[in-house]
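Exam revision sheet. Question 4 asks you to relate a sequence to its structure. Input first:
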Amino acid sequence: MKEQLKRLIDLQQIDSKILDKKLMIDKIPLGIAEAELSLNTFRTDVDKIKQRLDSIERKKRDKERALDDMNERIRKLKARTAEIKTNKEYQAHLKEIESAEKELYALEDEILGVMEEIDSSSKQMRLEEAKLKTKEDNIRELKKKLEREMLEAEKELLPLQETRSKIVDALDNELYDQYITLFESCKGLAVTEVREEICLGCNMNIPPQLFVEVKKNEEIINCPQCRRILYYKNSI
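Answer key, structure tokens:
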């Protein structure tokens, strides 16, 4: 039975390594997905800045067309000046030209303001695009690194699984079934050490007489609290 217990301990160690590798492999796609989500969120933010810049540039073009129209209107108004016959009509005409010129100056000021907005947004756009490129490069390298780690972990699983098969073949069937039941119900820890009368699986005390028996490592003994299989390291 001592040999069977030794095999159970070896099996637990192998299964712990296999479990760690599988957990790491399972986490890698999640890590890649989280990185890509972060990148896509950043891309969306950059797109919003670009859309705002496009909107401001359209606004500038609209105002420039309005400015051209106003210049044309003023040109036509001034061209009609010579046709005016009375002083009253002439004064009204001058006021109309003056009003149009005020609108023209206001449009010019608005265009200057829009141009400042474009300049500010363009600078922000260049900065964010540079950040985006850096982020894309970093995530590309991260994906390569994680994919390499996944391939390496998958390679390391093969010899571990081969060793596991050999141990299982040498184990008593009923004992293996008990181990698997405990492994599944005890979160991957079916066989655990006892140290100073404490089960390191559940951190509970075991009776002194039971500890004496466990120290012999001559039979399969379960923890009275968590039911894990117990062993004493110093005499195995």
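Marking note for examiners. The domain at 27-156 is CATH 1.10.287.1490 (Helix Hairpins).
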